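To: structure desk
From: M.T.
Subject: fold request, one chain
Message: Could you run this one when you get a chance? Sequence is below, nothing fancy, just the single chain.
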Amino acid sequence: MALGPCVAALLAAVYGLGASPGADAHDISRHRAQDKPRTGVTEARIVIDESDGTRFEAPRPGTYRLPVIKRGVDGDVLDTDGRRRRIFDVIGDRIALVSFIYTRCSDARGCPLAVTVFFEVVNMMAADPDLARNMRLLSLSFDPNHDTPSVMADYSGYLSRGEAGSARLWEFLTTASQEELGPILDGYGQYVVAERDDTGQPTGAFSHVLKVFLLDRARRVRNIYSTSFLYPQLIASDVKTLLLEEAGEEN
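Reply: Done. Structure tokens follow.
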């Protein structure tokens, strides 16, 4: 499978091969305070290392609480086999990490960043049985006209190749129509605008603010990560904090 612009940007983001010229195409200025992680602590620190860039030190699991932000939203989706399913059925009885993407995204700080982080979380899950048993990752396209089940299958096949069991850990979904997608996006507050050229025709690109949602087993949103706060280490700490909360073992 040939690398599309999204995957090429993903590799650039991961391996430092240079950012896409359109890296700032998404309106990052629209990030709001409520989109930042709600850890309720100050232990988390950003450590700047001039030799290899920015590193993030996550707070220790159980030393903070994640408040309930809102209820998660269910909806009709299609999996990579074209089967009609419900979001909550795909999640099952697990804690879920949910992102909204589209496969043609070329903004290294947008969808490719979310995919890169999810890939790193899958690797963490492969090395940590607690995470693997208790988590599921969902990437849902907001471009159903292009991102059909077969396109999502090709996309997921490239990203997950060589990762044992990743198909069970990370689900790639789309919807049958914009009409079915709309209530899902509205429910999560993931706003997306199709970009148009000077003649008013769609360009195939979308303006959106990257958001990733952490849902507990009760289908409640417990954190919303955005571009500046999307760290695999923080996600792992948050999930382990929820597991400690379930067990009544918070510190």
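Reply (cont.): Residues 111-127 form the longest helix (17 residues). Let me know if you need anything else for the meeting.
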